[in-house]
Amino acid sequence: MTNENLIELFVEKMNEKGKSNNTIKNYVADVKNYVKWLGVQQGDTPADAPKKTLKKYIQHLESSGLASSTVNRRIQTLRTFYQTLIELGIREDDPTEGIKSKKIAKQNDTKWLERHQVKAIFEAIDKQKQGEDKRFRERAIISVLVNCGLRVSELCDLKMDDLDFKGGFMNVIGKGGKFRRVPFNPATQRAVKQWLQFRSVNTPYVFHTERSEHMTPRAVQHIVKKLADSLNFTFTVHQLRHTALKNIADTTGKIEIVATVAGHESVNTSKRYIEPSLKEIGEAMKQTEYDF
Length: 292
Prior knowledge:
Layout: H1 3-16, H2 21-42, H3 51-63, H4 68-87, H5 115-127, H6 132-148, H7 152-157, E1 163-164, E2 169-173, E3 179-183, H8 186-196, H9 217-229, H10 237-252, H11 255-262, H12 271-274, H13 278-286
Antiparallel strand pairs: 1-2, 2-3
Helix pairs in contact: 1-2, 5-6, 6-8, 6-10, 10-11
């Protein structure tokens, strides 16, 4: 039975169960993404892929810079898909059994960095024992993430043609191929220009490594982890993006601006940056605390 047949049977079953057209459309997109990865990476099909292969796929999703909520949705889709294959007698086992969803930070748990911490990150880059090319590349990467609020996958996909130094914007292709323009301000421009002096590979992408013309999210995460290990606080790639968006929220107080820069489809996703964190609430309440 072909993958196309499996998907057709899955769709029929979802229609029988009264799932909405939009839900089925999302299911199909998620399953096709999985099937495509299986064919390229493993040579398996959904009908015979073992649990270890599914775990590799989830690791692939996580390293692609997708949000935990997106990873969880795709895991849930595959749970539904495999339960359907079992109902149809196509599989006997469920490879999604025992696989847990990823933890999602609650609104007030979203962490961003303080100004002194961002400064410490740049100082840590300058202290690293490495060549100037890597140092300026790391400074440019951190600058783009913490000042422009890009997702790590968006940073990796950034091309030279996307940079408009004169206009002060960069073109970004986000989730679902959605296009947006993000301000590209002087400090970040300087950091990127310094890196471009050392850019030695003939590639359309802004950031590359010694081995690849296209830097991967995993490579960026490795850089961030190395820096975090040298500091007295931990931070992640996502926290750099959160920091940029939080700064915009604090400066403007306008959720629409945050959503536009972030590339959020809904302003509701951006609320976490407008609403005060528990730390901020605590600091405010200290000023009015009674102590007789």
